[in-house]
């Protein structure tokens, strides 16, 4: 299995490769779906037990490691982070998730790992805390808001945020917060959904004043 890789620095560059990329991905998905499992080594947990094809319809969300459970997107982002930290075993890293397989896997690779969730209620916090306890993580699930992080200026070496900013009405405020808490030369790795036929961002929710999100008429933001 192989899928055409970038990097692409412009939308035009991506569109020039679009047909080939989609064809490669379709072939890879079909090959994975036909297999009981996909052989390979997970470079996040180090296991050579292969990957589950899963029910995902694309290579981004599928291919979960049979040991640590991290999918292709999580493993790729973690690899970029680890490759760009000078000394992962001594680094301080924040990740915008905590009750997740990715957080568990990164704890074995990062010296000081700080995870958090956006927790709207104590009931949710207790449920996620129970999940962490079942997986050997002491302490409570931590609440944090990416638009107003509780960390000090320049206090971390790396920030990892996967598919979070599309849920944040003011994503620019989140990016400013990421920049604020990163030390000089720090590493930011993030992913967001990418719709290849759409050249603008679209805001689909706004705060309603009660701590929840409402869905107004869709407004494009450039």
Main structural class? alpha/beta
Major sheet details: 4 strands, parallel
Indicate the CATH class of the domain at 69-221. Alpha Beta
Write the CATH homologous superfamily of the domain at 69-221.
Vaccinia Virus protein VP39
Tell me the number of helical segments per DSSP (H or I, 4 or more residues long).
Answer: 5
Compact overview of the structure:
The chain has 222 residues and is α/β, with parallel strands linked by helices.
Commentary on this structure:
InterPro entries: Methyltransf_11, SAM-dependent_MTases_sf. The structure is a single chain. Helix 3 links the parallel strand 3 and strand 4. The strands form 4 sheets. A 4-stranded parallel sheet has the order 4-3-5-6. The protein has a two-stranded antiparallel ribbon with strand order 1-2. It has 5 helices and 10 strands, in the order αββαβαβαβαβββββ. The protein has helices at 11-33, 72-84, 101-107, 122-134, 171-181, and strands at residues 51-52, 64-65, 92-95, 112-115, 156-162, 182-191, 201-203, 206-207, 213-214, 219-221. The protein has a domain at 69-221: Vaccinia Virus protein VP39 (Rossmann fold). The chain is α/β, with parallel strands linked by helices. It starts with 10 loop residues before the first helix and ends with a strand.
List key phrases describing it.
disordered C terminus; 30% helix; two-stranded antiparallel sheet; 222 residues; four-stranded parallel sheet; 5 helices; alpha/beta; SAM-dependent_MTases_sf
Topology:
Elements: H1 11-33, E1 51-52, E2 64-65, H2 72-84, E3 92-95, H3 101-107, E4 112-115, H4 122-134, E5 156-162, H5 171-181, E6 182-191, E7 201-203, E8 206-207, E9 213-214, E10 219-221
Parallel strand pairs: 3-4, 3-5, 5-6
Antiparallel strand pairs: 1-2, 7-10, 8-9
InterPro entries: Methyltransf_11, SAM-dependent_MTases_sf
GO molecular function: methyltransferase activity
Pfam families: Methyltransf_11 (PF08241)
């Amino acid at each position: 299995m192989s899928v055409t890789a970038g990097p692409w620095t412009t939308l035009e560059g991506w569109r020039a490769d679009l047909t080939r990329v989609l064809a490669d991905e379709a072939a890879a998905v079909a090959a994975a779906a036909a297999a009981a499992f996909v052989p390979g080594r997970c470079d996040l947990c180090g296991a050579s037990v292969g990957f589950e094809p899963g029910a995902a319809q694309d290579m981004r969300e599928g291919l979960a490691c049979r040991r640590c459970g991290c999918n292709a997107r999580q493993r790729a982002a973690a690899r970029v982070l680890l490759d760009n930290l000078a000394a992962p075993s001594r680094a301080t890293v924040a990740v915008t998730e905590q009750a997740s397989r990715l957080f568990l896997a990164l704890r074995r690779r990062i010296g000081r790992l700080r995870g958090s969730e956006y927790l709207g209620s104590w009931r949710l916090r207790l449920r996620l805390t129970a999940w962490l306890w079942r997986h050997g993580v002491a302490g409570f699930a931590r609440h944090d808001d990416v638009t107003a992080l509780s960390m000090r200026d320049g206090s971390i070496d790396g920030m990892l945020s996967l598919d979070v900013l599309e849920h944040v009405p003011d994503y620019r405020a989140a990016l400013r917060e990421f920049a604020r808490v990163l030390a000089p030369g720090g590493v930011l790795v993030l992913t967001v959904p990418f719709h290849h036929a759409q050249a603008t961002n679209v805001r689909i929710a706004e705060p309603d004043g009660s701590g929840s999100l409402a869905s107004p008429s869709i407004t494009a933001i450039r």
